[in-house]
């Protein structure tokens, strides 16, 4: 590479100043340079920060300084990774002043803070999001161009941190984005997994899990803070001792401990000067290295403590089919909540803060059951460390916590064996027992003589083994319990926690999930964003209800034509990406039918697979002429949990069907299937804007909410779906004429369940029978019937999520889809109305609901 116009001679003689070392005495007439920005007061002072509009020259200067002084290379010798790291750190500088100022303002105001505890955060790539938040896209593009660098190559260099498994982690990321945009004090707490959700590859059409080494090339967005580390204890025993005041108190004598070291990530609001904090914890050994053992030659033993400790934050959701895996998961959960509570109490609150006022300063939102062990941990801090009596501590604790339940599946409500909890966290088990004893006395007082009710509501389950029901503990201690869609919240009250909702009806509420329009429309779909902004202005970005202003344009022929051009451009972008990323060729002139979500039986990827095979069977059997088939490209994206055998068999079968369908000239140009590996946020940002049809086909009563359904609707895809989760609200808002509804309702599912016989549907429906027979014949697996047997046997003899019962209704709905798609103008009108009427699904609205109904922050 030749040296571009900027050279080392343009650089300042010294590296750009670190804002952390600017002193209070720095005179305003001699402002210190912070990259291309200026600060006229100490960054931690309450005075204003003066930041002139960024310039291309200033950006280039800071970028080259980061490249020279940060990476230690000249531009002419730098790699793409050097350039990416330098660019990221340049953008980081523009955020840092606002971050420090936000923190100073928060400390001065002493406002109530939301501590969002989540075991998952699916953040996506940070570079594009932070350029968007700071409005630096155009400046950065021009600066990189002046340096002879294609900024697209630097964007592509970033590895997204896969610190989540799916919707739960992506939701957490959306929520912290919205809280910053709304200027709500919030600290997101989680785990800095060294290896996130595995990277998925396919070998012989089967899923193979590869470690996600997202840190291997550097992580420029994080700030380690070893001075804020927290000591976390495990194991041991408890004993009664007499304190200095003559009180008999309990003391935990642990066996071992680890250190939690925080890594800070900046969470910028959208162009509002607010930057909140995400604090992720990494586990370190307290004694990482034994020199004497090392010198004796036993090198592995010398670092054993380090290896053991660091396993806690090594990998997201370790396989828990073994006792060791279960123990490691509980270690992870306690580790991060203990670090987080101690951090807030000891490092964030003023040293002289009266903890009796803690509920005025802190609300802890438990994102599912993973962080629920925080409840006995706060009790332990208040009673054992701070000397509160039990009743006062319990009153404080109950006013600090709120619980979000994200599931309707009983197996997803975590339960920990008493044996494991007692061995790993003996003091916490004692606290849980006492909480339960006092709670059950409340139950007996409220419902005298009903001991069966007492047993049902006990936090401690007796069968099949003595264990702690974490959802029950969260409900007992939480000030509020919420579901995440209207239907889900109703079923949560009626089916999952009915006894608790009977006892505390006012404790239960609903907050329907939402997504951030900044990442999933403004950043992911710039073509659509520009069209919307040119039409109604840019106020929709932080007030998504303003999308309603688009409704009249659905009847404007020129706007519909422009909307179709946007969709076509997004399809072309996706096709180019998949060609390079996966070696996949997908048609750009067909309906793009997309089903992307975690691979789970209740989400019913098998139902979509049966539909594909039925279309293929229609053509190859001669029942339908190929030219009469609506051109359709079906795209799957899904990972199966490593230990979920049947889900992995479904992935294999989808890939096998794709291989056969795509190679058969009889359906060429009419039907194709793509399953790009390793679906993640980065791929979602290209795939969702290109989609025509959104598959949301879970069995009614099983999906809590979904957020993919919202992303597709906001990007102009029509939904085919059941009345499940947030589909109910999407259909109500966009209108029945612009949503393809099929399948049983939740009450119908429950009425059918006791006598459900899936083979009966196979026998009675000739098209279903022909479809399953073709699958079972081995046609898609080179004649190997055994390869498809696990999926076929499950469908015919178990089918727990009733794919066969909904098959005919689903096919009828797909015929309505094809009829609608045949009229491009009418389809575009429906798609525009989906965009215009989906503003409710902004995560900003979700946060307002949390603030009004739960947090009161």
From TrEMBL:
One cellular component (GO) term of this entry: cytoplasm
EC code: 2.4.1.1
GO BP terms, alphabetized: glycogen catabolic process
Residue ranges of the region described as Disordered: 1-49
Residues recorded with modification N6-(pyridoxal phosphate)lysine: 711
Cofactor: pyridoxal 5'-phosphate
UniProt key word Metal-binding: no
GO molecular function list: glycogen phosphorylase activity; pyridoxal phosphate binding
Protein name: Alpha-1,4 glucan phosphorylase
Protein's organism: Phycicoccus avicenniae
């Amino acid at each position: 590479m030749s040296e571009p116009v900027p050279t080392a001679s343009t650089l300042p003689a010294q590296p750009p100043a670190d804002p952390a070392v600017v002193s209070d005495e720095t005179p305003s007439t001699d402002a210190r340079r912070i990259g291309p920005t200026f600060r006229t007061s100490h960054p931690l002072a309450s005075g204003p920060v003066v930041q002139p509009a960024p310039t291309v020259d200033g950006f280039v200067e800071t970028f080259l300084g980061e490249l020279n002084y940060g990476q230690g290379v000249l531009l002419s010798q730098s790699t793409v990774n050097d350039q990416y790291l330098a660019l990221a750190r340049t953008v980081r500088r523009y955020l840092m002043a606002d971050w420090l100022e936000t923190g100073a303002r928060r400390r001065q105001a002493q406002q109530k803070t939301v501590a969002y505890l989540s075991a998952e955060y699916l953040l996506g790539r940070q570079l594009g999001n932070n350029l968007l938040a700071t409005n630096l896209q155009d400046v950065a593009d021009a600066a990189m161009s002046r340096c002879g660098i294609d900024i697209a190559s630097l964007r592509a260099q970033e590895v997204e941190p896969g610190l989540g498994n799916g919707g739960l982690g992506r939701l957490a990321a959306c929520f912290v984005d919205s809280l910053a945009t709304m200027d709500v004090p919030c600290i997101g707490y989680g785990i800095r997994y060294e290896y996130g959700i595995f990277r998925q590859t396919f070998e012989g059409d089967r899923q193979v899990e590869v470690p996600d080494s997202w840190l291997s090339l550097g992580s420029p967005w994080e700030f380690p803070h070893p001075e804020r580390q927290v000591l976390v204890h495990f194991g041991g025993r408890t004993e009664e001792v007499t304190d200095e005041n003559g009180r008999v108190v309990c003391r935990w004598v642990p066996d071992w401990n680890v250190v939690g070291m925080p890594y800070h990530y900046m969470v910028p609001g959208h162009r509002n000067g607010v930057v909140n904090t995400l604090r992720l914890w990494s586990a370190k050994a307290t004694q990482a290295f034994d020199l004497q053992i090392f010198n004796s030659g036993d090198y592995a033993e010398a670092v054993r403590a380090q290896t053991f400790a660091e396993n806690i934050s090594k990998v997201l959701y370790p396989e828990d089919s073994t006792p060791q895996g279960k123990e490691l998961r509980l270690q992870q959960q306690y580790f991060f909540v203990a670090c987080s509570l101690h951090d807030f109490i000891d490092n964030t609150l003023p040293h002289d803060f009266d903890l009796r006022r803690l509920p005025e300063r802190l609300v802890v939102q438990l994102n599912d059951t993973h962080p629920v062990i925080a409840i006995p941990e706060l009790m332990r801090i208040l009673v054992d460390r701070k000397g509160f009596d039990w009743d006062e501590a319990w009153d404080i604790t109950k006013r600090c916590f709120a619980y979000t339940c994200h599931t309707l599946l009983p197996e997803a409500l975590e339960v920990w064996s008493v044996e494991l909890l007692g061995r790993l966290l003996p003091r916490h088990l004692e606290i849980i027992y006492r909480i339960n004893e006092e709670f059950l006395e409340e139950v007996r007082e409220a419902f005298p003589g009903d001991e069966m009710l007492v047993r049902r509501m006990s936090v401690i389950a007796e069968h099949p083994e003595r264990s702690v029901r974490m959802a029950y503990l969260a409900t007992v201690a939480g000030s509020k319990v919420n579901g995440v869609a209207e239907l889900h919240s109703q079923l949560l009250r009626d089916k999952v926690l009915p006894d608790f909702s009977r006892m505390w009806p006012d404790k239960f509420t609903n907050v329907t999930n939402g997504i951030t329009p900044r990442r999933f429309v403004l950043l992911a779909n710039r073509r659509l964003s520009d069209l919307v902004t040119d039409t109604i202005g840019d106020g929709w970005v932080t007030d998504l209800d303003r999308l309603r202003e688009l409704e009249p344009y659905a009847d404007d022929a020129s706007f519909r034509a422009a909307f179709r051009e946007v969709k076509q451009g997004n399809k072309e972008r996706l096709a180019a990406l998949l060609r390079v990323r996966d070696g996949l060729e997908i048609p750009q002139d067909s309906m793009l039918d997309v089903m992307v979500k975690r691979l789970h039986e209740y989400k019913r990827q098998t139902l979509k697979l049966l539909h594909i095979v039925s279309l293929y069977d229609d053509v190859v059997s001669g029942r339908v002429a190929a030219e009469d088939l609506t051109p359709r490209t079906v795209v799957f994206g899904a990972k199966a949990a490593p230990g979920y055998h049947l889900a992995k068999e479904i992935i294999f079968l989808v890939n096998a069907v794709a291989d056969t369908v795509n190679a058969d000239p009889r359906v060429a140009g009419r039907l194709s299937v793509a399953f790009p590996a390793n679906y993640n946020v980065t791929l979602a940002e290209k795939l969702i804007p290109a989609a025509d049809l959104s598959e949301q086909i879970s069995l009614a009563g099983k999906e809590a909410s979904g957020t993919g359904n919202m992303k597709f609707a906001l990007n102009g895809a029509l939904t085919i779906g059941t009345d499940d989760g947030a589909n109910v609200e999407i259909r109500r808002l966009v209108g029945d004429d612009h949503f393809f509804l099929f399948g049983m309702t939740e009450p119908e599912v429950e009425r059918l369940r006791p006598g459900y016989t899936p083979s009966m549907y196979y026998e009675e429906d000739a098209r279903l029978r022909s479809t399953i027979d073709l699958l079972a014949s081995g046609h898609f697996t080179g004649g190997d019937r055994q390869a498809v047997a696990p999926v076929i046997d499950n469908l015919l003899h178990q089918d727990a999520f009733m794919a066969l019962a909904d098959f005919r209704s689903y096919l009828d709905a797909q015929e309505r889809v094809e009829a609608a798609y045949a009229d491009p103008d009418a389809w575009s009108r429906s798609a525009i109305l989906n965009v215009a009427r989906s503003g409710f699904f902004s995560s900003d609205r979700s946060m307002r609901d949390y603030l009004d109904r739960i947090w009161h922050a």
